[in-house]
Amino acid sequence: MAILKCRDLVKSYGRKTALRDVNFAIEPGRIVGLLGPNGSGKTTLIKIATGLLTATSGSIKIDDMSPGKETKAIVSYLPEATYLNDWMKVSQLVNFFDDFYADFDREKANEMLRNLNIDDKESLKSLSKGTKEKVQLILVMARNAKLYLLDEPIGGVDPASRDYILNTIIKNYNPEASVVISTHLISDIEQVLDDVVFLKDGQIVLSTTVDDLRETHGMSVDGYFREVFKC
Amino acid sequence: MLGKLMKYEFMAMGRIFVPMYAALIAVTIISRLLALLPHSAPIIIGTTIASVLVGAVGVITFILIIQRFMKNLLSDEGYLMMTLPVKTDSLILSKMFVATIFSIVSFLVSTLAILVLSSFNFAYNFQLLGAWLSNLEGRYLLVLFQALVIVILAIFGSILLIYTCMSLSMLVNKRRGLMSFGVFVGITTIIQIIVAIATTIFAINHTFDYTRFVNMSYFAIGQLVILIITTIALIQYAVFYFITRYMLKRRLNLL
């Protein structure tokens, strides 16, 4: 059964339509790239799945439930914004996640923090922007969620950490869990993706497996993206 | 989950409030001690600083209630808070309860500081108060208790009104502070108009038989007034609460 399923999903902000008739499903155990240029509706789609936005019409189901308290317990969400309380120490944030998420693995989080040389005694305020993003990603990935929704997870971090983070995502690959990564840095994540969904002006223009795409079009995801979204 | 949310809310607000209370208490004590010295200049300085601090405690309490809701739920931190597996009710109530507790503590600490500064004789006055309370008839103790409940409800109400204004400001994407203030003016005006209309209708209603009050005791009339006030207040607060809840649940618009 699909972990995420959208049916005729529409979202409009006043007269502006951000998503129109979006239909697709994500099966368990897949790493999915949600790809599209700026303003194509990627963030809107993710926000509806997290319950931060309400769809104008149509439905979205996570593990067969509408977004709410129960789906929030199984969805691990990384927003674009720096969203942690900056007066807290890293260790307090670890406690915070441990307090609220039953699926949070404290050991895993501490191990990742050590591997990236992040001192958990430091308050978030004193960390650089890139380090803050790493802390956020570590907390999000240290959950044993069923669905990870990562909105631009690698935008602000250096290439070395980028590799570590992508490895972390793959290593934490629970066969039951699915990962949705929204980004326009396609070449960096291409090697980890199973499926791709292309969004353009709020509509899905392509939803396929990476293997199929390479076979049918004879080019990489990055190459095909550049062709589809040619300006 | 309400308890855990309140725990973090206490941490967030406490880290501002506790040092502030400590500063107020310290300055108050110092200025009292200075009063024991033969010269009067230090007393004036101490008292001035303490009075400014009392004012500051009030203002900061108000600002912090606004800031905690706006920053923690409606801005970037909202991405974390609004995706926690907790009910929207718990988010609102945790904020409201902790804000109420700190409002009460701010009031108590400020009152205490003012009393200490004005050389209030605590032992003597508490003795008087105790004597007065022990001679009070049981039913007036009930009135005192009701007054206390009404005060606490009024604090809930004011905080919920502030939350309502801020959550309605999510309807616009710019100048939310201004929008909140506009909503505040709008809501208070509407309430005034409703009250005015209701009283007028009541006053010109000739069929209402006022003589039935003539034989009622003052106590009974008092109880009736309390009942009416509380009912009207609770209806208002319920409306504030449900507007806030609806906005957070259905019309969330994080910037």
Compact summary:
The complex is a heterodimer of chains A (231) and B (255). With 231 residues, chain A is an alpha/beta fold.
Explain what the structure shows.
The complex is a heterodimer of chains A (231) and B (255). Chain A is of the alpha/beta class and 231 residues long. Chain A has helices at residues 42-50, 69-72, 90-100, 106-115, 129-141, 159-171, 186-189, 210-217, 221-228; strands at residues 4-13, 16-26, 31-35, 57-62, 75-78, 147-151, 178-183, 195-200, 203-209. In chain A, a hairpin with a 2-residue loop joins strand 1 (4-13) and strand 2 (16-26). In chain A, helix 5 (129-141) packs parallel to helix 6 (159-171). Chain B is mainly alpha-helical. Chain B contains 8 helices and no strands. Chain B has helices spanning 2-34, 41-74, 78-81, 88-117, 122-135, 138-168, 176-203, 218-250. The interface between A and B is medium-sized, with 23 and 23 residues.
SSE topology:
The complex is a heterodimer of chains A (231) and B (255).
Chain A: E1 4-13, E2 16-26, E3 31-35, H1 42-50, E4 57-62, H2 69-72, E5 75-78, H3 90-100, H4 106-115, H5 129-141, E6 147-151, H6 159-171, E7 178-183, H7 186-189, E8 195-200, E9 203-209, H8 210-217, H9 221-228
Helix pairs in contact in A: 5-6
Chain B: H1 2-34, H2 41-74, H3 78-81, H4 88-117, H5 122-135, H6 138-168, H7 176-203, H8 218-250
